[in-house]
Structure formats: C-alpha cells, structure tokens
Design goal:
Blueprint: H1 3-9, H2 16-24, E1 34-43, H3 53-71, E2 84-89, H4 95-106, E3 110-116, H5 123-139, E4 144-145, E5 151-157, H6 177-183, E6 186-189, E7 207-210, E8 223-225, E9 237-239, E10 244-246, E11 255-257, H7 269-277, E12 288-295, H8 300-306, H9 309-324, E13 327-331, H10 334-345
Parallel strand pairs: 1-2, 1-12, 1-13, 2-3, 3-5, 5-6, 6-9
Antiparallel strand pairs: 4-5, 7-8, 7-9, 10-11
Helix pairs in contact: 3-4
Length: about 375
C-alpha cells in the first residue's frame, strides 16, 4: 500500500493537521506541583454481540463481583480507589443492570452516564428517547441533579457518530445533536478520540467548547480551547482523551495511540507516559493534567483482561509513571473530571481533589463514606 493509501485507510487526513498543530504548540512550563487526573470511560454494553438478557446479566454480575477485588490494592493520592465510569447504552436498559451498577456506585467504585446508539433518527425522537432513558437511570439513583432535580449527564455517542458525523449519515441522523444534548441536561461529551475512525475531529488533545453553528453536521470541528477565566453556560464541554502517533520498536510505521484499552492492547508504562505527554489541560492551568481513556469492558474477553492481571498492570503503571513524573495521581469519574475542569476555568488552584463535587454533586446512590 502506498503512503497515501495508508493515510486514507487510517483517516489521518481528517486529523493529522490538527495533531501537527498540537505538536508545534509550545509546551507549558512544568511546575513543582503536578496532578494527574485519570478517568476510565467504559462504553459498557452488556448486550453487545446480540447477547441474551441472561448473558448480559452475567456480564454485569462479573463486574459487580470482581471489580472491587481487582482494585483493592490500589489507592490514589487522596486515598480513593480506582473509579470506573460506566457509559451505559440507553437502548439496552434493563432494571437489574442499573441496580447492580448502583451497588458499585454506593461503594465509591464508579458512576453511570449515558451511552447511546441510534440510526436514521430525528431530533424529536432523539429528545424523547434521551429523556426516557434519563428518567429510567434516575429511578435507580444514578446521574447528578440540578437544583430543580433535573438529571445531568455525561455522554458518549455510539459508533463515534456525534452530530451525524459520517459521510453516509449512518449511526445518527441528527445534525443538531450537540445543542439537543445540552438542552436535555448533558454537561460534557466524552466521545473522542475516535481515530482511526472517520468521525475523529481535526481538534486534537483538547478540552474545548464547540463554536459556530452548533446545529450543523460535525459541529464539533470548530472549537475554543477551555481556559482559565472563561466558562460558557450555554453549551456542552467536549473533553477529549489523548491521541498521538507513537513509535513502535522495530517498526517503520508508527502506531495510532487513541487511548483505547483492550484485551489485545492493554495499558503499559509506555502508553501511560504517552497519555501524560499529550498534556491535555485547561489553558492557564497546566499542572492539572487530564487523562481520559476508554474501553468496551462488558464482553467476556475484555472483562477478563480488565478485571485480571491487565487491569492491575494499568494501576501499577499509573502509580509508577505518576511517581516518576512527580505528579499526584487522582482517580476520577467523568463527572468529577468535568467538575475539576470547571474549577480550573474559574481560576481555582491547589489540590484538584477539593473540586471533585465543585458544580455537579454525586448521584443519589453514591455513598461518599465508602469512597
């Protein structure tokens, strides 16, 4: 395959220039007190592969039983255990699933947010479905709340297709999805990076606000970097995970590091270092480094890896690399990561642990005494 063919096959043409701008941007000066904020966002799909309800329930039960045991040896700088953000698909709603995940939330091991697959949709049906799913999640004690009781949620789009991103318009159908998410209570989108998928934007390694006509298709392609002294109250925040081209020992062609943890590609110290080196932060607060990675943890092979030796290797690597970087490690949920980003934009300094619940409070089923 020619070089051009490789670039097109990996969709590098959609994001390579954005990545180049990121690499050329001057790196912030390192400070004496650095903090690593780590969030593992799981596209948690128990019915993946057309699984039966019984199989799906068994997959969730595996996480309920094994996750607390796997993370037992690990605590962050605040004494908190690893926290798993379960982005659960609304279309797979089963009461028993959210009850089991509520037990993990009560123990301080994670929180539930909204994941959604939809196709050939329209704004009216999408709004109705989201509102129905949020009401169902809330009945089980999940999701943060506004002062008036309205659910607030983080979002990951199924098939990466936020804002009707694909050329063939599959796996969405709603150009105006980003403002619709905000209107239904979404505080931040955690979909990206999606490389090498075609939906990957040309904005790379940023926390940013979408700009321009937010009702247009792929409205996330234009954005304003989140910065100290500026907080926008009228739109969702886009919180990206690290994306880079990295060297592979003995290989000429680099690999795409898109922060996906899989059974075939588990976390290593080298990968953790790459995530930190992406230096995702709120402009003006470089000492708070945001690392959001993702996985699809429900299927058996993935669960066996994440809940076994590879899962423990991830946390050992995080501890090792954060110590070598002289950074304090903080395990955060998606909601806590957002809260800390907001605190940074509002000019807060010091220990980000103080701002886990800064704007959005924990879901009702969360028991802070267990965290």
């Amino acid at each position: 395959m020619t070089l051009f063919g490789k670039l097109k096959n990996k969709n590098l043409h959609t994001w390579l220039s954005g990545y180049a701008r990121h690499c050329l941007r001057s790196r912030p000066r390192q400070t004496d007190s650095r903090h690593l904020l780590f969030a593992l966002c799981d596209h948690f799909e128990p019915l993946w592969g057309s699984a039966s309800d019984e199989n799906g329930d068994a997959r969730v039960r595996t996480w309920q039983e094994r996750y607390p045991k796997m993370v037992a040896p690990f605590r962050d700088a605040d004494g908190k255990p690893p926290r798993h953000s379960f982005f659960f698909p609304g279309e797979q709603y089963r009461p028993s699933t959210l009850d089991r995940l509520a037990q993990l939330t009560k123990q301080g091991f994670g929180e539930v947010e909204l994941h959604l697959h939809h196709d050939q949709d329209n704004a009216k049906s999408l709004r109705a479905n989201i509102e129905n799913y949020l009401a169902a999640y809330a009945r089980h004690g999940h999701l943060s709340r506004d002062a008036d009781g309205r659910p607030r949620y983080g979002f990951i789009h199924g098939n990466w297709c936020l804002s009707n991103a694909r050329k063939d318009r599959r796996h969405c159908g709603v150009d105006e999805e980003i403002p619709l998410l905000f209107e239904t209570g979404c505080y931040a989108d955690f979909t990206f990076p999606s490389a090498p998928d075609e939906c990957q934007p040309n904005i790379v390694n940023q926390i940013y606000w979408p700009q321009g006509d937010l009702k247009q298709r792929r409205a996330y392609e234009q954005g304003r970097r989140a910065r100290v002294g500026e907080f926008l109250h009228d739109r969702v925040l886009l919180m990206q995970g690290p994306l880079s081209l990295t060297r592979r020992p003995g290989k000429l062609w680099p690999r795409i590091e898109a922060a996906a943890i899989t059974a075939a590609d588990p976390a290593t110290s080298r990968r953790v270092q790459n995530w930190i080196d992406a230096s995702i932060h709120v402009d003006g607060r470089p000492e708070w480094i945001f690392v959001k990675v993702h996985t699809h943890g429900a299927p058996e092979a993935q669960a066996a890896s994440l809940l076994g030796d590879s899962g423990q290797a991830l946390h050992r690597a995080l501890r090792q690399v954060s110590e070598s970087e002289h950074a304090s490690l903080h395990y955060v949920t998606a909601r806590e990561m957002y809260n800390i980003a907001v605190a940074a934009m509002e000019g807060k300094t010091g220990n980000p642990n103080d701002f886990r619940d800064h704007l959005l409070k924990p879901p009702p089923c969360f028991d802070g005494r267990s965290a």
